[in-house]
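Hey,

The postdoc asked me to send both predictions to you directly instead of through the lab channel. I've kept everything plain text so nothing gets mangled by the mail client. Protein one:
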Amino acid sequence: MHQVRLFAAAADAAGTEVASSSAASVAELRDELSARFGAEFARVLGQCSLLVDGARTDDGPLPAGARIDVLPPFAGG
């Protein structure tokens, strides 16, 4: 089971800051979270970066027990 941490607009759209997932790949994770949290979340997720155990990734398999951070674009500095 993966721990998924949602930040900023992603957390707002999902209504939570933490979720869990058993997805086997990044694509499966995106589909699962979009189905769970709805259309607005899916729109936000499309703009987000994903960090898997601290490394940015766009696709591929997820290692067992990964910590995944969903990071929307941030403004400011």
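Protein two:
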Amino acid sequence: MADQVRDVAIIGGGPAGLSAGLYLCRSKVDTVLFEQELTGGQAVYSPLIENYPGFPDGIPGAELIEKIKTQAERFGLETTTFARVEGIEDGGKVRTLLLENGQVTARAVIIASGRSPRKMGIPGEDEYTGRGISYCATCDAPLFREKVVMVIGGGDAAVEEALHLTRFASKVILVHRRDELRASAYLKERAHAEPKLEFVWNSVLAEVKGDKTVQAAVVVNKETDEQTEISVSGVFIYVGNVPNSSFVADLVELDDAGYIKTDETMATGVPGIFVAGDVRANQFKQVIISAAEGALAASSAQRYLERIGARKAYGGAAVW
């Protein structure tokens, strides 16, 4: 595989990467996509996406991703899952992706590696991850039928997942460090109307305790410093995300939070390397924005191939 020079290599199989692949393959650009896990990114774990155009009743994240993937593969997108890219070497005319097992060379690269849930670094977190601590209610909620669970966070993700957990758990305790939710108005309204959802305000999670699995969570009130140990069987943590950009930290420019900087065409300061989706330094993180950025990155990569003579230009117009 290392001997073949591909036109474009995409890193990441979420909405941005799949949309980029769709646009490129529909324009007959030789494209390969690498995803370190299964395709879908964080969107695949959303129980219901209600703000993606074309689905008036909403659509589960996994179903939406499967539709995008099927559409891209219909035009010939080649995807390789469980393929972790550990670095990129810029060779001027080509870029080499360093994989766990081998390497791939491409004329252009689109980085759509997304971001991962942020860990809190508290006692018990590593010990009980997978044994009561989870970062994905959509994945693990059925394991907590008729049990008491806790959700940490107050943004859209935390509230959305807390509401999903109420379908299974007997009670869901949402702990937030402020005195009101940061989630969108619609989610706030649903949360406050849910009888199974209980709120603990102005508080943070300090420790998770248990035996073989989680048995309790220690919560500290930020205003009084009072510690309270609450009996729970599960803890779901939603305290932000970390961009998956460390593998190119010495190649492209990052902002202070580790997100990759680009211009308005999704181009980095390195010719032939483009970025799209949640790993990019942008203000909003939404599925539709990631998909749009993937399309734009694909169009920019196609223009780049035309400029270097690797693809015939069509009068300066995109091939749609």
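Summary for protein two, as requested: Residues 315-320 have pLDDT under 50 and may be disordered.

Thanks,
C.
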